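Our platform keeps sequence and structure together, in a single record for each protein. Such a record has a labelled line for the sequence and another for the backbone structure tokens. The tokens are whole numbers drawn from a learned vocabulary of local backbone shapes. The remainder of this section carries one protein's record, kept here as part of the documentation:
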Amino acid sequence: MRRATGYPRGMPNVVAGRQVSPRKGKEDDMTDMRASDLPAEAGFGDYVALLKPRVMSLVVFTALVGLLSAPVAVHPMVALAGILFIALGAGASGALNMWWDADIDALMRRTRNRPVPAGRVAPREALAIGLALSGIAVVMLGLAANLLAAGLLAFTIFFYAVIYSMWLKRATPQNIVIGGAAGAFPPMIGWAVATGGVSVESLFMFALIFMWTPPHFWSLALFTKSDYADAGVPMLTVTHGRRVTRAHVLAYTLALAPLAVAGAVTGIGGPLYLAVSVALNLWFVAGAVRIWRRTEAQAEADGYRAEKRLFRFSLYYLFLHFAAILAEAALKPHGMGGW
């Protein structure tokens, strides 16, 4: 286990992008530094970035859909508190992940300007924020909603911070497959806030995100391979190559499509969801087939245009599926949603 103080084990002494030699004393380092070399003081935006707001927004949206699509009425204050504490839990997970991954984040172009590797937020500070927010989020969700929702949130934070970040991410090319469970729990938590239980519908929403995660992240990895290789992260593109990764994207997309469409016959589905899901999955499968057929020479020639297009579409794919679930729930009181 890494120490709670200083930079995580294995991370170079980096200050504002400049590597500081460990052989020099503190006075020597300060003498050698120009004013421009000193790390900038953390601002409010750095602490917001520490919580991974983009990831948090997806968590909040899917949790909200899980809550609002449940077949029970929820008091507005309970719903508001539930979503707030789920969001805090997501932010806590992000802070803990940034603390632990600071060493590899510093080596990847996509992540090296994050607050911790850039030196604007100290690792021990990120750890403290992550632990504090975790405790607040779990305890307050239990008080505001119920113990099942709080337990699911606690397990989600643990899974993302420990199982995925500390173990799977650096241990196996299946890191994204298994680790995808962390991002799949929020709609289950939202459903549990409303109902106090787990159902076929909440399990379906979990499965939808779980199966979507591998093709989503592997399509990203196809055009960011050097980042993962430089950081020593065993992403599938690094361990097995892009050709195998393309085949895996197609295989998981083909498995995802019937699962996603089958959601139409659950209690949260309906004609609108069916139409949206069929259209989205036809496009997604076509895109996966397209990148599977491409050679590396073709991909390099056009700057991985098809791979980038599939990655961008995968974001809309998940959002629109959950938006369709939400629309079905909104139509039901008017006798138009569901079957």
Observations:
- The two ends are 52 Å apart (CA to CA).
